[in-house]
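Checked the freezer inventory, then went back to the computational side. Two predictions to log before the end of the day. The first one is the construct we discussed on Monday; recording sequence and tokens without edits.
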Amino acid sequence: ATGAFVFLGQSRLERWQLAWRVLVIALSVAALREGLVRGPLMNGITTSFWAQAVIANLTFATELWVALCWLAWSLWLDRRGKANAPWVWHVLAAVAISLSVHWGVAPAGREISEFLLASVPQPRPEDALLPPYGWNVLVPAYLSYAEPVVGCFVLAWLSWNQLHRQATVRVLQFTVLITFVRGMVLTPFFYASGSNLPFTQGLLSMGQFSLEVITLAVLVGLTMTAMYRQRSF
């Protein structure tokens, strides 16, 4: 899905140098996934173990690598005059990039995280905050949700002109893409199948996060539709 935004956003990104293109894609995807601010912040608040919260939740290297790979693939196709390459080429590129993350970037990131975590003090269970949370947790949680909202708006800005012209279909397309980028399409089903909870309960437990992402994407999509109708964006 990240690759889709790279190709959809070409008209916006083509005026910028490669490094800026990579940063825009990587930062917006990382923000949508709450990996820059919200994830580390909320983990740090609830566990009081800030070192672990920052080290374990910053996955920006993965987003940088994926964005770089997709942009390199896009540039290669353009220079070869194959901008309208068969869809199977993009599927093969997606598989190759996914394998490079699974077998290369992700393991390297885990090793670095484990090395860094071994050098910092370990958390104490008594320092962790447990539900029900008070305002010291809820206020930062609400305010920091601005991060995925901003990331979602940037991705909408990149792709909006290239989606379907009919407003309803355009919002639906954007919602599907955002849900895939967040990895929340099949996650509830995998969680429900592997957890100790009854399937329906497990599905609802994780499905609330899918619903959260879908709601975010739909609201951003409706906002973009209104802004484009008013020609203010």
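The second is the one RB wanted added to the comparison set:
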Amino acid sequence: MIEQIVWHIAIVAITIVAYALLCNRLMRATQRVRIKAAELATEVILDSRTPKHVAMKMQTMQGDLLNSSAPWLIAIMLIPYALQFGFRRTEEYPVTDYDDLNSKINQASTYSIISFLALSPIATTIICLQGLLILAYLASLKKFSNFVKRVLGHSISSNHRHA
């Protein structure tokens, strides 16, 4: 009995150490990407043409580059958020009137997402699985909607002919 408990504790400890090593390796592997995201965000923030609301979003993005709780927050809130807001954007993507700034914003955002996904492999896996569920749900809604349109269209045209 005690040997089994020790064995289970050893498995848990090995799993925790392996996960910590994986997270460390991912942090190191994405360090250049994280630095590039921060540099681009800083360029956008310091540019005098950048609107204040865009600069604030870029500052928030910079703050989240090393926030390891952010992926877990998304993993926990993705489905409830999607259900509440109906899969539509609730806030505007930061855009300016200048193509060069928009390009930097897009690059910084892309690098930030890569960095974000590397912060927690388990949370990222959960987010990806939830994304697949959402896509499957949306695809089934579209099929259901098309089916209803065909059935209603057929019954309406059938009733119309008989009238």
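For RB: The mean pLDDT is 84. The radius of gyration is 24 Å. Let me know if you want it refolded.
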